[in-house]
Amino acid sequence: MRYVKHYGTWGYILHRLSGLALTGYILIHIYLVSGLHNRPAWQSEMEIFRHPLLVVLEWCLFSVVVYHALNGLRIFIIDYFNGARYQKQLLSAVLVLSVILFAAMGAVMFI
Amino acid sequence: MIQVKVKVYRFNPENDQQKPRFETYTVEADPKDKVLDLLHRIKWEQDGTLAFRRSCAHGICGSCAMKINGANMLACEANLKNFKDPTNIIVEPLQSLPIIKDLVVDLKDFFKKYEIVKPYLINKTPPPTKERFQSPEDRQLIDEATWCIQCASCSTSCPSNWKNPNFLGPAALLKSYRYNFDSRDEGTAERIHVLDTNDGVWRCHTIFNCVEACPKDINITWHISQLKKKLVSREY
Ligand code: SF4
Ligand code: FES
Q1: What domains sit in chain A, N to C, each tagged with a CATH number?
Q2: Mutation probe of ligand 1 site: the residue of B53, B114, B148 with most atoms within 8 A of C-beta
């Protein structure tokens, strides 16, 4: 039983997936830093995170944060204002803004 | 004229030898035909055992809602030429409701949810000699909500409803709006507690599948958002 996925449906699916990803991240994050009780331990751990691959991952994490935050704002506008009347335009705005902020963060991080 | 391959979901729970399956029929059709015309032709000319509901054939009664090419709509309004490929049509029953036969689903649960939201005027003051007056502006507030033909397309397109069958669903919530926002009604205090639960308005995750499915172009999610707003702005 498959059902067509409309534009708004994708907004919802992305919101749920990004939410799950953030939950996973925060648990890993807490686990990784919970054992670091002094400055050298902290610094040597941070050294690992300078690895280029992990920096790129961090950048991706930012995109997830941005989408989830902006779409959260969209849901708020839908629920508390008249956003339900223009949810598709709002979703487009969320996506465009996410891409712009993602690119801007890329510039800040890598240039 | 075009040749249309119609893949139809078939299931008869009374015959437990047969599992649910798809049967494909080839039907000659005009591109201006509706999917309901195809189903008629199949039933009348090829296979009389096919079961589906319909009555008005003009988008008024709401009985012919089904899933066509993956999305809920009225078969009598589903114009072949509006499909990307009008020669391949897949017809399934509304998702998540028990199947009585083929495309006919059991709507008992769907209408039970209407009862729960008390879809009638509650007003304890004795009626005046003529009708209860309502200004055009107040009527406007509930206008869109009165367009509903209770076809169940919305509720059976809603992922929150698939996951949790106890969710009141868009159709019942729309009806709840229709009475709670009626200027002549005094029943909000009696109705509001069923909305303010996990299975009430808060299970609406603004996915908008219902709005896409509604054949009457009702923005159901907007009406649910007004109910949400009413709930959070209550004063005690
Ligand atoms: S709101 Fe629209 S989709 Fe839902 S039952 Fe009414 S007419 Fe059908
Ligand atoms: S047959 Fe009445 S709405 Fe389609």
Answers
A1: 7-110 (1.20.1300.10)
A2: B148
